[in-house]
Amino acid sequence: MEETISIKDIFYTLKKRLILIVLITVGAVLISGSISYFVLTPIYQASTQILVNPKDTENQLDVTKLSSNVEIIKTYSVIIKSPAILEKVIDQLDLNQSVTSLSNTMTINSQDNSQVFSLTVENSDPALAVTIANTVSETFQKEIKNIMNIDNVSILAKANLPDNPAPVTPNNLLNIAIAVVVGLMAGIGLAFLLDYLDNTVKDSKELEALLNLPVLGSIRKFDKSTQKKSKNNTANRIRSEMNES
């Protein structure tokens, strides 16, 4: 027998399992919110901008030099994360970190055909993130003269600590929004699964379709309070008739 599901059946299933869907959604939101606010550690970012500035005594734009300095930014990115720079930063700030762990908190981005690149540092302490970013930039500017025997690096913008620093991760509102969507999907999916696994007969029409036989009659279900009230009424009526006789 081929079964079809109408839109009415879908809405009936959702209405019947509405409490289940709501409970799962609320539970997902509470779990996500608790993890985001109380378990995950907020991470803050601080960025500086560094300029590779070629010195041209003739004050002429040399395309070859410009291209060369853009390419050398890749070399600078490696040098910034090297022990030659980070070990001095760790000693200067007395950080309880290794060179590798400190390097993993740093990101260097450069724009295409630009001599400017940014150094971004992530840390659970916003003030420390600012301090590390500025110290790394200043140490790099100082040490690059000895490492590559050049003097063409300038710090365009230092990292600053805002009045109300906002963490970049976790994004609490986004996590809660995702939890709402996931909770709704899980609740609706479970509602349809329970409805699919429920093989009880719901009404006379379903019984007729299942047995291919007509339903001749039905017995109404009475609750206990109705049955008790009916018995009391019958007993009172019998007593009344006996008294009259």
Automatic annotation (TrEMBL):
It is found in: Cell membrane. Residues 141-193 form the Tyrosine-protein kinase G-rich domain. Residues 3-93 form the Polysaccharide chain length determinant N-terminal domain. It is a multi-pass membrane protein. InterPro entries: Bact_polysacc_biosynth/exp, GNVR, LPS_length_determ_N. The keyword Methyltransferase does not apply. Pfam families: GNVR, Wzz. Residues 224-245 are annotated as: Disordered. One of its GO terms (molecular function) is protein tyrosine kinase activity. It comes from the Bacteria. Coiled coil: none annotated. Its main location: membrane. The chain crosses the membrane at residues 18-40, 173-197. Keywords: Cell membrane, Membrane, Transmembrane, Transmembrane helix. One of its GO terms (cellular component) is plasma membrane. Belongs to the CpsC/CapA family. This is Capsular biosynthesis protein. It comes from Peribacillus psychrosaccharolyticus.
